[in-house]
Amino acid sequence: MTVPGKLFLLIGLPGSGKTTLARRLEAECSALRLSPDEWMAPRFGAGESGEKRWVLESELLWGVAARALSLGVNVILDYGCWAREERDLFRARTAALGARFELHVLDVPHDELWERLKRRNQQLPPDTFPVTREELDEWIGWYEVPTPDELTGADSPTFTAHVWTPEP
Questions:
Q1: Which residues pair with 9 in a beta bridge?
Q2: Integer CA distances (angstroms), 98 to 72, 84, 89, 140, 156, in order
Q3: What is the SS3 string spanning 77-96?
Q4: Helix (H, G, I), strand (E, B) or coil at 127
Q5: Does pLDDT of 7 surpass 90?
Q6: Sign of the Cα pseudo-torsion (25, 51, 145, 129, in order)
Q7: Which residue in 43, 104, 91 sits closest to 65, CA to CA?
Q8: Are 96 and 27 in contact (CB under 8 A)?
Q9: The whole model's pTM is what?
Q10: Is the dihedral of CA 23, 26, 28, 29 positive or negative?
Q11: What residue segments make up the domains of the chain, in order of their start?
Q12: Which one is predicted more confidently, 152 or 45?
């Protein structure tokens, strides 16, 4: 019988370091890394493209992730997941597969996020889109910071949470 893999869900705003951490975990944990930006750009252009991003994340990439987890493969979702409802959805889906779940919260102060994004905007990596200060300020208002009860996982021995903050 195959033991299900572990799902690593990375959350945070643009510029918080999700993709950098995802690439590190990919190597360290022999995991399949699924980053929506890398799938969006060649198909729909960078950014949100209406509801296409959500369909890509919640249906297509989740289908790949679920199959891989059921085969015993570790999976990294480099998603952002700004709303608790989204995080709870992926946590419940993972539990239904019998897989382990690891939540990684990238907690970066807003001014530091903007400084990182300004640098990134000057030399955009492939499959990345520029972010304006106005967009960042709007998105900060949409982001639901994980609450202590969301991070405890006392209800599940297969749950772990990590909060990453930048070094000074």
A1: 77, 103
A2: 10, 21, 14, 33, 11
A3: EEEECCCHHHHHHHHHHHHH
A4: coil
A5: yes
A6: positive
A7: 91
A8: no
A9: 0.87
A10: positive
A11: 6-164
A12: 152
Class of domain 6-164: alpha beta
Beta bridge partners of 8: 76, 102
> Could you tell me if 107 and 164 are in contact, meaning their C-beta atoms sit under 8 angstroms apart?
yes
Residues 96-114 have pLDDT tens digits of 999 999 999 999 999 999 9
Residue type at 150 in one-letter notation: E
State how far the alpha carbon of 20 is from the alpha carbons of 3, 50, 131, in Å: 28, 26, 18
- Can you read off the two tokens belonging to residue 46? 């960078």
Q: How confident is the model at residue 41 (pLDDT cuts 50, 70, 90)?
A: low
Among 37-46, 67-76, 139-148, 155-164, the minimum mean pLDDT is found in 37-46
